[in-house]
Amino acid sequence: MLALVSPALLVILALIVLPVGWLAWQSIYHDGFTLENYRRVFTEDIYWRSFALTFEISLAVTAIALLLGYPVAYLANSLPKGWSILILSLVVLPFWTSVLVRAYAWLALLQRTGVINQFLRYLDVISEPLALVHNTFGTVVATVHILLPFMVLPLYAAMQKIPGDLMQAGASLGASPSLTFCRVFLPLSLPGVLAGSTMVFVLCLGFYITPELLGGGRTVMVSMLVSRNVELYNQFGAASAVAVVLLLSVLAIFFVVSRFVALDRVLGQK
Amino acid sequence: MTRFSPARIFLYAISALVLVYLILPVLIIVPISFSSARFLTFPPPSFSLRWYQQYFTNPVWMQATQVTLTVAALTVLIATPCGVAAAYAISQSKLRIMRLIHMALLLPLVVPVIITAVGIFFVYAKVGLVATMPGLVLANVMLGLPYVVISVLAGLQSFDPAQEMVARSLGMNRLRSFFAVTLPQIKASVVAGGIFAFISAMDETIVALFISGGRYQPLTKRMFTALRDEIDPTIASISTLMTAASFLLVLLATTRQKRKAG
User: What distances in angstroms separate CA A151 from CA A70, A146, A225, A269, B17, one per listed residue?
Assistant: First the structure.
């Protein structure tokens, strides 16, 4: 049996375990053991600001995705099967579109001469084009778009498990629909909220393409810090230290949350 | 709950808006790709195929497409058997270490791709695999493996291993009984896993940005560089084609899985 897993395991060991181990080693070793890279990451302003910005953006994206995703999952859950399949297909459809294609689409929609600005000018709502992209706003809009399915699917899965009888019981005991929702449905859907929010938050922490293309160079997320240190400044030690801190944050979040909900189910969905 | 309470109407309205937000950007590239205008104007002044022509006659785009398709095909050919073997072993073995191995095989989904990309770049630089075809294929095999493993494990869950025991008791060896009894029954999930690995390789961008170069640059890397500089409508036509290809493949993968279930 071990012989059967060995080809796959070998690929994983050689192409993800070894490279990440190499990064970790490089972050602490440069002509001898050093913590200089970590000192820089934790004390220098650019690094701090980038980490803070990345966490802020990830929090904002998670909150927006939850606000947008919850009603959709709720509706899909409450409708007959045919309709819920239709809604979920629409949610999953963009999921299978290349991230790059969607970045292009958002650039086409949001840029100064983009569809939205042209439309608003045509309607005479604005006289000057709005700066919708090449900033944090554009990054957030496109990132939510990409991550929303990761919120809706776990939410829907959790809601499916809530027995309908419980809502009826609540209603029969005289609670109004909104009270039943708040006291019965909402708490029971919390595992889905937690699973979806974790997925979105963690994926957002490591986002690269979207902020690189839609952030306009000003929204420097942690992943961009890593790539710039490698590509532009040849600061391999610093890049490695940033990567290690990012990875540890991600693993720590997964570890903590996995004690409350089964995340491996959610992971299976891309 | 009455069918059309204000809360219900609000629910419908907000859900509809969210769905429009999800779908519209994917659809907007289609009319742009058929536009005749040099710059982005909407609605397009008139329709033309010039951006498709631009794409199909440009040697750089064509070479990149060829690289992408070759990488994706080789990825499937390598990742599928490796992933099937691993999933089979994980589902059959009772060894404790298999749980750990299972988790290790899902690592590519957990580690942020930017970290994987930079790490592979450093390792490849040491062994001379940067800007080579084997390097690109190997990285995509690693990234595609989890999809095969997950899909095949799901398929194996609904398969009764006793059947294979019967085949073996009738004199088949383990290998033959797998190919004669097990594989035909999990074929749908194997094919689905392979298709997902193909799509993953076709869409992969971040690792390619770091480790590909020269002649061996996939479409996504060229698109990324082009998007950083200027928004060329050629990319709309490439995007439209890529999206159509992914949708067809996903449809293929899911209908096969369903047929099996029914």
Answer: 8, 10, 27, 11, 16
d(C-alpha B225, C-alpha B243), whole Å:
19
Q: How far apart are CA B113 and CA B119, in angstroms?
A: 10
- Whether residue B246 and residue A98 make contact (CB cut-off 8 A), yes or no, is yes
Separation of alpha carbons A40 and A46, rounded Å: 10
Residue ranges covered by each domain of chain A: 21-267
Instruction: Give me the residue spans of the domains in chain B.
Output: 58-259
A228 closest CA partner among A246, B211, A220: A220
CB A260 within 8 A of CB A158: no
Q: Who wins on pLDDT, A46 or A170?
A: A46
The HSE-up count of residue A253 (CA atoms within 13 Å, CB side) is: 22
User: Closest partner residue to A4 among B89, B205, B236, by Cβ?
Assistant: B89
Q: Is the model's pLDDT at A270 over the cut of 50?
A: no
Number of alpha helices (DSSP H) and beta strands (DSSP E) in chain A: 16, 0
Residue A269: the pLDDT is 43
User: Residue A263 — pLDDT band, cuts 50, 70, 90?
Assistant: low
Angstrom CA distances, A30 to A23, A202, A236, stand at: 12, 30, 10
- Residue A43 class from Cβ within 10 Å (0-12 exposed, 13-18 middle, 19+ buried)? exposed
Q: What is the DSSP letter of A175?
A: -
Give CA–CA dist B256/B85, Å, rounded: 21
Residue B2 has pLDDT above 60, yes or no: no
Count of pairs with CB atoms under 8 A, one residue in A, one in B: 250
Name the 3-class secondary structure at A232. coil
ipTM of the complex: 0.88
Residues 6+ apart with CB under 8 A from B234: B51, B54, B55, B58, B61, B226
Of A74, A145, A205, the CB nearest to B112: A205
- The nearest CA of chain B is from the CA of A125 a distance in Å of 17
Tell the CATH superfamily of the B58-259 domain. MetI-like (1.10.3720.10)
Task: Enter the pTM of the model.
Answer: 0.89
Summarize pLDDT for A119-131 with one digit per residue, the tens. Answer: 888 888 888 888 8
Contact between B108 and A12 using a beta-carbon 8 Å cutoff:
yes
What CATH fold (topology level) applies to the domain A21-267? MetI-like fold (1.10.3720)
Distance (Å, rounded) from C-alpha A154 to C-alpha A141? Answer: 21
